[in-house]
TrEMBL record:
Domain of life of the organism encoding this protein: Eukaryota
Residue ranges crossing the lipid bilayer per the database entry: 34-56, 68-87
Organism classification: Eukaryota, Viridiplantae, Streptophyta, Embryophyta, Tracheophyta
Keywords: Membrane, Transmembrane, Transmembrane helix
PANTHER family: EARLY NODULIN-93 (PTHR33605:SF2)
Organism the protein comes from: Populus deltoides
Stored InterPro entries: Enod93 (IPR005050)
Pfam families linked to this entry: ENOD93
Protein name: Early nodulin-93-like
């Protein structure tokens, strides 16, 4: 059996190049989201840890009811929520911004 040699049409070449460009843009968008989410998680951890730990030592109700596990759960929940919210918003904003950059490439033949 012999292989058929099929020449690519310019449309196919453009769609492959366009696909590579879209994949690179998606990777960049997701990377920006991860970085922004990580920064937000660090900030949220600090902003939550200080009052949580201070209240667990100073307030009688918190001292009685918030053990170390509860404190860690409060802090990690806020950090995780901040990460996912900020990462999602960043990815969507970056994708929206990039979709308006080159509107002619978004139209598929």
């Amino acid at each position: 059996m012999s292989k058929k040699v099929v020449a690519e049409s310019p449309l196919q070449r453009n769609s492959l190049a366009s696909l590579d460009q879209k994949l690179a843009m998606a990777k960049r968008c997701s990377h920006e989201g991860v970085v922004a989410g990580a920064k937000a998680a660090v900030l949220a951890t600090i902003a939550t840890a200080i009052p949580t730990m201070a209240s667990a030592r100073m307030l009688p109700w918190a001292r009685a009811n918030l053990n170390h596990t509860a404190q860690a759960l409060i802090i990690s929940t806020v950090a995780g929520a901040a990460y996912f919210i900020v990462a999602d918003k960043t990815v969507l904003a970056t994708a929206r911004k990039n979709s308006f950059k080159n509107p002619s490439s978004n139209i598929e033949a």
